[in-house]
Design goal:
123 residues, Pnp Oxidase, Chain A, 7 strands
């Protein structure tokens, strides 16, 4: 799972209650022996993960149209406020000025509780 943290974008696939795959391209950063992503707290991917924590991740381009590398199976966990802050720091460190500006814009638009970190570990 650690190599996938080096990707600029990954295709994060979450699953509906009936097993349908819902892929989304997203930023990723290494986090606590796995990887983490950062997203809007009330997004559908968060709702799906609360119901079914099984996910897959694979390297992709920004639009999710060009996939590369192996598909990795994982288990996702919605993080609390303290760990979400750590994910924001990891995103800012990895993505530089663009990451910091995106985080700032999100904080201004949604407030600090408007986004959430998601940790993903293999398995």
């Amino acid at each position: 799972m650690s190599d996938i943290g080096d990707e600029k974008y990954v295709m994060l696939t979450t699953f509906t209650k009936d097993g349908r795959a819902k892929p989304t391209p997203i930023w990723v950063a290494p986090f606590d022996g796995g990887v983490a992503v950062w997203t809007v707290a009330d997004s559908w991917k968060v709702k799906r993960i609360r119901n079914t924590p099984r996910v897959t991740v694979q390297g992709s381009d920004a639009r999710g149209t060009k996939l590369h590398g192996p598909v990795l199976e994982g288990t996702a966990t919605i993080l609390d406020a303290a760990d979400t802050a750590r994910v924001r720091d990891a995103i800012a460190a990895k993505y530089g000025i663009i990451g910091r500006l995106t985080l700032l814009g999100s904080r201004l638009r949604r407030g600090p509780a408007g986004t959430v970190g998601i940790a993903i570990v293999a398995g």
